[in-house]
């Protein structure tokens, strides 16, 4: 965890004062634990309120800007992609909206009219980008500048688009604020750009319905009890240092709020190793995605030496009536406390990890914000959140494409690491890769340097190491990925 210096405290207290929040409520994300039933445009869902509070604390931050570069091949023209973009912003109401806060401090979305603009040569079209001067720079430079420019969500729509064409290739730079989207939004958003037609909310029927109020309240109470007995217990240590927290409870609610510059590194996961690894999931009774979170836990132990650690895992909480075009961010945060026994077998370690994951996911329907509020009201401290682990689909995964008109997508790093260490397995329809973000100066250099190698090598080793001990697995890992 970053050191809570007086300079950081001064900065964070200033942000809180400017936002109108109080110290005790600074890190909270809302006090309303009632189930979300609204499907109408305008009213914020509970996860959106949590994200909005984070935004209000530091509106100049770019930590929640998501940038993508899409390359269109085949017979797509700039004009055809622009036409698709215009359909998108017309139908995807969240993307053509600003946020107004009423006299009671409640945020609401209001739709505004925005138009795209062509440059003088009619070769570059932009939407939500004020200036197009100097746009002759290369794509990556322009994409980085667009991604690392803050949104003023009171006046800016949470979307920027730039469409250009050269040598039969159409390029789209898309930047969106996380308040407006989550991973469940990509099929509608990118599917419309790729197909040229409005895709709508094709995944609605696969999502859960909204729970009734009484079961939801009981689930929230149970989630708090689970937190206090596992990831929010007083004996949880920082995994990077192995130390118990020393800051006061009041100070702990401030310490997680400071964005830091980050570094991102990616590495491919071997396809053959992944196929063998997926067979292990059947052996230990877990899904492949859950097993990859288990790998993240083993990696955290191998990298830090902490056998007892908390990983923070994101999850989607979108309900059936919450269409992405009407309701934006519906994410949740699920902390999980893992205990690794070095003398136990690798198979048992993965089974134990699966138990932790599935037990924690029982409470995924309760938003993280009300849990934090309950912990704070009971005098607890902000939970240990040094390492985030996730398994996610690539933005274009599952989106139909023509063989003669392929579309590729790559992400643009916003330069910020939201956590000291973030680990992600990302899969498209053909390949899986690992992404590791870290905060230099917080994460030791030797841990950062080994992270991607440790993760990919674990996927290689585990299928043939189920009967060995975790200590033996880590020893082999150290031989293959030396410090």
Automatic annotation (TrEMBL):
Molecular function GO labels: catalytic activity; phosphopantetheine binding
GO-annotated cellular components: cytoplasm
Xref: InterPro entries: CAT-like_dom_sf, Condensation_dom
Gene3D superfamilies given in the database record: Chloramphenicol acetyltransferase-like domain, Nonribosomal peptide synthetase, condensation domain
Domain Condensation: 49-424
Gene Ontology biological-process entries: amino acid activation for nonribosomal peptide biosynthetic process; lipid biosynthetic process; secondary metabolite biosynthetic process
Protein name: Putative non-ribosomal peptide synthetase
């Amino acid at each position: 965890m970053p050191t809570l210096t007086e300079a950081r405290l001064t900065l964070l207290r200033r942000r809180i004062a400017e936002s109108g929040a109080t110290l005790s409520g600074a890190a909270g994300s809302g006090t309303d634990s009632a189930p979300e039933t609204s499907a109408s445009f305008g009213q914020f869902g509970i996860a959106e309120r949590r994200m909005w509070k984070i935004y209000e604390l530091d509106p100049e931050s770019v930590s929640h800007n998501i940038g993508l570069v899409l390359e269109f091949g085949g017979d797509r023209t700039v004009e055809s992609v622009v036409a698709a973009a215009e359909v998108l912003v017309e139908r995807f109401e969240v993307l053509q909206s600003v946020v107004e806060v009423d006299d009671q401090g409640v945020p609401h979305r209001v739709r505004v009219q925005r138009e795209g603009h062509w440059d003088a040569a009619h070769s570059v079209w932009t939407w939500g980008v004020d200036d197009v001067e100097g746009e002759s720079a290369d794509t990556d430079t322009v994409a980085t500048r667009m991604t690392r420019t803050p949104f003023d969500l009171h006046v800016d729509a949470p979307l920027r688009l730039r469409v250009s064409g050269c040598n039969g290739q159409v390029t789209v730079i898309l930047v969106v604020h996380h308040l407006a989207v989550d991973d469940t939004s990509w099929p509608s958003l990118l599917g419309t750009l790729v197909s040229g037609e409005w895709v709508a909310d094709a995944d609605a029927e696969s999502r859960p319905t909204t729970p009734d109020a009484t079961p939801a309240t009981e689930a929230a109470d149970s989630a708090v009890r689970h937190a206090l007995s596992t990831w929010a217990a007083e004996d949880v240590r920082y995994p990077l240092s192995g130390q118990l927290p020393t800051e006061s409870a009041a100070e702990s609610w401030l310490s997680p709020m400071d964005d830091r510059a980050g570094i991102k590194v990616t590495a491919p996961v071997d396809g053959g190793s992944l196929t063998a690894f997926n067979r292990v999931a059947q052996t230990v009774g877990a899904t492949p995605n859950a097993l990859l979170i288990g790998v993240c836990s083993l990696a955290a132990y191998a990298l830090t030496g902490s056998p007892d650690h908390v990983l923070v895992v994101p999850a989607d909480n979108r309900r059936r009536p919450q269409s992405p075009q009407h309701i934006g961010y519906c994410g949740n945060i699920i902390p999980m406390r893992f205990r690794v026994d070095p003398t136990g077998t690798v198979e048992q370690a993965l089974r134990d990890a699966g138990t932790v994951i599935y037990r924690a996911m029982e409470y995924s329907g309760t938003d993280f914000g009300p849990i934090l509020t309950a912990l704070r009201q009971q005098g607890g401290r902000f939970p240990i959140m040094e390492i985030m682990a996730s398994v996610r689909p690539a933005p274009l995964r599952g989106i139909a494409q023509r063989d003669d008109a392929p579309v590729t997508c790559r992400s643009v790093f916003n330069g910020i690491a939201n956590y000291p260490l973030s680990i992600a397995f990302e899969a498209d329809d053909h390949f899986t890769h690992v992404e590791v973000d870290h905060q230099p100066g917080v994460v030791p250099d030797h841990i950062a340097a080994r992270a991607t190698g440790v993760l990919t090598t674990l996927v290689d080793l585990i299928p043939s190491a189920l009967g060995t001990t975790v200590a033996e697995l880590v020893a082999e890992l150290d031989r293959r990925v030396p410090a």
